[in-house]
Amino acid sequence: MDISLVIPVYNEAESLPALHTAIHEALKDVQQAWEIIFVDDGSTDTSLDVLKALAERDSAHVRVVALRRNFGQTAAIAAGIDNCAGDIVVLLDADLQNDPADIPMMLKKLDEGYDVVSGWRFNRQDTFITRTLPSRLANGLISWVTGVHLHDYGCTLKVYRREVLTGFRLYGEMHRFIPVYAHSVGAKILEVKVHHHPRKYGQTKYGLERTIKVLLDLFTVKFLVTYAKKPIYLFGGTGMFLILGSGALMLYLFIRRTLEHISVLGSPLFQLAVMFAIMGFQSILMGFIAELLVRTYHESQRKPTYMVRHFINFQNPPDGRNA
Questions:
Q1: pTM attached to this predicted model
Q2: How many helices (H) does the chain have, and how many strands (E)?
Q3: Can you give the residue ranges of every domain in the chain?
Q4: By CB neighbour count within 10 A (0-12 exposed, 13-18 middle, 19+ buried), where does 31 fall?
Q5: What three-state secondary structure class fits 99?
Q6: Are strands 189-194 and 116-121 parallel, antiparallel or unpaired?
Q7: Domain 3-227 adopts which CATH fold?
Q8: Using 50, 70 and 90 to split pLDDT, how confident is the model at 306?
């Protein structure tokens, strides 16, 4: 299998037949073998029945993964990725707002040497105040914090080479951060403008509360991507900053005591300096403990601290790929 389309589904019964038809129309001229992995995320309408009918009618392309309950979009995407067979993974929403007609164009971009092609809903057809504006603010913050600059992290329509999807698990609302994880292992990322259509059926599953969840997940992603392999840089750096702050306060109190004869022990700055010193040493000790945990994690699972793009002139590459 060359291409796998992974589509999370939650109460989209009316959209599914039209989506299936649109995908066939979009991929009719694609020469690679392809499959559609529909992941029913505990739908309470007739979505699963519709998917079963599609799978029976189009057994050559349609696969269905039915989750036991509603686990959320990220979990549904993870289930699809875990159970697909394609070397190229295409993520797509089931609500017909993403346009399958954009997929061939995005696939061609992979041939130009990119590992991730991310969709950008340039002319987004959603409510501005409750959907578009919060999304723009979140996208700007995510780009600034992670250093991976994309206009539209929230667009599900993305194309990945499978090798950049390995080595991490998805939790919370973290599916939108997959480009960040991919970038951390050296993936080349391109963002392209894609079509976006108004919702025809059903109701949106997202609200302002989701933006808050995304922002909270951003802290986790930043830590995992930047400090997961060297946590001492975070904890130790914080500890050194606090200790230096403590030293600066102590120096100020000493100079003030020498020149102005003001009591050191009676000043609240002395208590603050002592607290900074204690917190600084504790932070450094936490960094040492985190370093031990990281080494135990990598060594117990034999997880490498690097990722190889390809081998050249090897007869038998260590990872089993052709030279």
A1: 0.76
A2: 9, 7
A3: 3-227, 232-301
A4: exposed
A5: coil
A6: parallel
A7: Spore Coat Polysaccharide Biosynthesis Protein SpsA; Chain A (3.90.550)
A8: low
